[in-house]
Amino acid sequence: MLEDNRIVVYDTTLRDGSQGEGLSFSVEDKLNLAKKLDEMLGLAYIEAGWPGSNPKDEEFFARAAAGELQLKNAKLSAFGSTRRANVLPEEDTNLRLLIAAKTPVITIFGKTWDLHVIRALGTTLEENLNMISDSVAYLKKAGREVVYDAEHFFDGYKANPDYALETLRQAHAAGADWIVLCDTNGGLLTEEVPGIISRVKETIPNARLGIHVHNDGDLACANTLTAVRNGAEQVQGTINGYGERCGNVSLCSVLPNLELKMGYQCLPEGNLKNLTEISRYVAEVANLSHNNQLPFVGRSAFAHKGGVHVDAVMKDRRTYEHIVPESVGNSQRVLISELSGQSNVLHKAYQLGLQMHKGDAEVKEVIEQIKQLENRGFHFENAEASIELIMWRTQPGYIAPFELRDMLVLSERRASSNEGLLSEATVKLQVAGNMLHTVADGNGPVNALDAALRKALVVYYPQLDAVRLTDYKVRVVNEDGTASGIRVTITSSDGHEIWQTVGSSTNVIEASWFALADSLEYALVYHLFKQNQPEASALQTV
Amino acid sequence: MLEDNRIVVYDTTLRDGSQGEGLSFSVEDKLNLAKKLDEMLGLAYIEAGWPGSNPKDEEFFARAAAGELQLKNAKLSAFGSTRRANVLPEEDTNLRLLIAAKTPVITIFGKTWDLHVIRALGTTLEENLNMISDSVAYLKKAGREVVYDAEHFFDGYKANPDYALETLRQAHAAGADWIVLCDTNGGLLTEEVPGIISRVKETIPNARLGIHVHNDGDLACANTLTAVRNGAEQVQGTINGYGERCGNVSLCSVLPNLELKMGYQCLPEGNLKNLTEISRYVAEVANLSHNNQLPFVGRSAFAHKGGVHVDAVMKDRRTYEHIVPESVGNSQRVLISELSGQSNVLHKAYQLGLQMHKGDAEVKEVIEQIKQLENRGFHFENAEASIELIMWRTQPGYIAPFELRDMLVLSERRASSNEGLLSEATVKLQVAGNMLHTVADGNGPVNALDAALRKALVVYYPQLDAVRLTDYKVRVVNEDGTASGIRVTITSSDGHEIWQTVGSSTNVIEASWFALADSLEYALVYHLFKQNQPEASALQTV
């Protein structure tokens, strides 16, 4: 048994998480992700694939076993199902592939719900019990730690409690090291959890229990925490809540609640502060936008917009922050806008490590610029990189890495041609004392402009090769239709950092140009400025 | 008192929701959203703004009071704070603006947490009690229904329970119709809810309680449901969980849990099935991607990826679906049945007064076209004029009022000139047998294109003079940045009718052209077709 306050963390991002719509990891991705999860979080188990379901996962386990994956903290687990009906375990391909994966841990799921046994599996309730018992015993005999996932446990219990509990008793009696209660369909209500778990504990009092839930009812986090309070020692989940349908429970929500609020220990001391970084890293590898609103780790999780909130937070962070953001590696963001005064700018300057003080000419200049640009339709709340550039540009010795002279963008469609609409852009740029003149075409005028700019810049700044525009948004600022002010917000990434820039103009091309130019300038200079920043620990005293 | 199983729904998408990062609604947006929320959900209260905090909200309430907003079900509420310290209620600007908003309901928040009273407000605990009591009494005297939001109630209770409860007692004694317990910082644990609410009920046993929570701990939905189980009769939340930081609780999660699983009634019978549509509509207006993973209403919520799941679901939907997706207006994503497609189109045809019947070639053609266009990134949920055009075009005798042949759009900026960026468009159009070739400049390429088109068309169709583009929105459809599919949605008006059209392409100019052309075509033909339509009263029986 573990100490009372220790919770074992079981990550299934690479297996159940990868079932999410739009997710697909290569073998290389999985090897990298497993290493990162192990190093940064140091969690107990990493479930990395289902060797019986696809050859990619077989390859993963073969390469891991061959020494490509050395884990310091976590045990690797291979996932599969109990044997098929009416087959001996040693003759079951799926079980054989699990053994062949050579992981210290094997996780198998079995059917709990009579509806599934009869309708989906097409076998008898009796044979299903044998399948569970045989399969667990077989894997234990092979010397593996066995995690038994009771699929649809809660639905099964509600439909036929005696049968559902009997499946658990079989798995436990056959030697399973863990009995994991799964809410596979994700529809469980939090209020149902304590009663059901207490029946499980009466039935198999010596079993170590785990919890595995999905978020279809928007209750995954609450259900997991409630299960822990009622005796579950292992929590299964995924980074960012990736997974089939509405996703698995997010470890990024479960872990900070358990550690910071409920007094449990889940990760080795000090690792919780890597949570935000791992969350963004996994999103990057998955090629999905990182959801700003994610609790604890989202970009907006500690962002303050209203003036009243900003004022209060600067007096005392607790007034509008439920935890210290740095404890999960996130940080406070004061959203700067026209309405914000000197104190917002000074706060930002402090975060950036810039020497600015109340009443300085630079501070007034920054506020004045923001005011003028917001009058022209800029909106900086969602474009911190543009704000940082404005602040850096006031610093002595700052030299812009390039300057635009001329541009010409055209889009053409002819009924006489089959080419559809063609876009082409010409730019003339001053870079490091040289005048560059380039042309490129693209899918649309902004894409062509981007291509022409990079064609010139990449010669001097090869690091721009890694920079990608990940999102592009356009809005009309006032309401007179196409002749109105237009605001463009661009999100960019170089694989490590994500930043947003803004441009506004009556002309969408010009607005795009402003945002694009800021994005590339930021990519070229942010490294220099990051060096000045104070330690997170210093920020906590603010 | 309400019947036992009735829950009152209070929507604050337009106020607290709009505090979310990246959200900004125009007055026009808010008027449209309020109408939709009222019609489609029929909820009890719509909190639409904070007249004391910005002039845009003042304008909203002025236009609503002047008759621009007629609500059938909901009561409109204006939001604000208790009076300032040491000021009479009648001299407090904020309270005066609340009265001036002329809404039947006024919601004010007051401070519960001693930390806030002293640190943020800088007044005494005693004066804060007076501020609450005076303000509620003043608004009640003015004849309004008063909702009292106890800001930071749960944190305040944990810090100083007696004082927190005393603030509620003051609000209740002064006549507040509702006492709403707010978890403003969103850090509340679900397990803390029952004990705290039971203390509240001991303190003010006759008060009607509401619950207002944020999602910073990923527990907003569970906390709301638990509060209802423990006696809260009103739930406050936003569509899609928009709101400051990690957002407010999502009504899209709370309502189906309460109605489908817990036996409560929240909306008029039959309205829950509009939930998915309103969820996507609000995202469209906010110009935010609709999150696929959203419980109940997300595109992925009932999408089955794994082969085992698909197979089981086709045998019995309950095997991997926690509710019937249609009960919230969502659908399973395994098979898109030709039948459901047909009936949707037939329903729309009936609304338009078109003669279409099951199995007609026109019906199949419409479905086929929609399918193809949606594959190319079109999205018709917020562009009914484009859908109507597709249907009309299948009708015998329909003649398009114009046809585009060629276009050339260019944007140019020269460092040697002071002109800024210039945009110019050339179009060649076929109109009523004649070829027209026009050129115009504009503020940006789309505006230039619009100007060139009108220059040609207005000669034949002078009524286009009255048509204005009132909004223009651009969205990246997938997520590879500026080279991705781009969807343009245009809102137009001729002073009587307002309509929306959509275009999609990899090229923003082409996407704009599609939406623009539909907009002008709709302007020219809708009069003809309106004549065929059945009376609104007949439509209600459909």
UniProtKB/TrEMBL annotation, chains A, B:
GO biological-process terms attached to the record: isoleucine biosynthetic process; L-leucine biosynthetic process
Enzyme class, spelled out: transferase
InterPro entries assigned to the protein according to its UniProt record, in alphabetical order: 2-isopropylmalate_synth_dimer, AIPM/Hcit_synth_CS, Aldolase_TIM, Citramal_synthase, LeuA/HCS_post-cat, LeuA_allosteric_dom_sf, PYR_CT
Pfam families in the cross-refs: HCS_D2 (PF22617), HMGL-like (PF00682), LeuA_dimer (PF08502)
Annotated catalysed reactions: pyruvate + acetyl-CoA + H2O = (3R)-citramalate + CoA + H(+)
UniProt GO molecular function: (R)-citramalate synthase activity; 2-isopropylmalate synthase activity
UniProt pathway annotation: Amino-acid biosynthesis; L-isoleucine biosynthesis; 2-oxobutanoate from pyruvate: step 1/3
Domain of life: Bacteria
UniProt-listed Gene3D superfamilies: 1.10.238.260, 3.30.160.270, Aldolase class I (3.20.20.70)
UniProtKB keywords: Amino-acid biosynthesis, Branched-chain amino acid biosynthesis, Isoleucine biosynthesis, Transferase
SMART domains: LeuA_dimer
Occurrences of domain Pyruvate carboxyltransferase (ranges): 7-276
Protein name: Citramalate synthase
Organism from which the protein derives: Candidatus Chlorohelix allophototropha
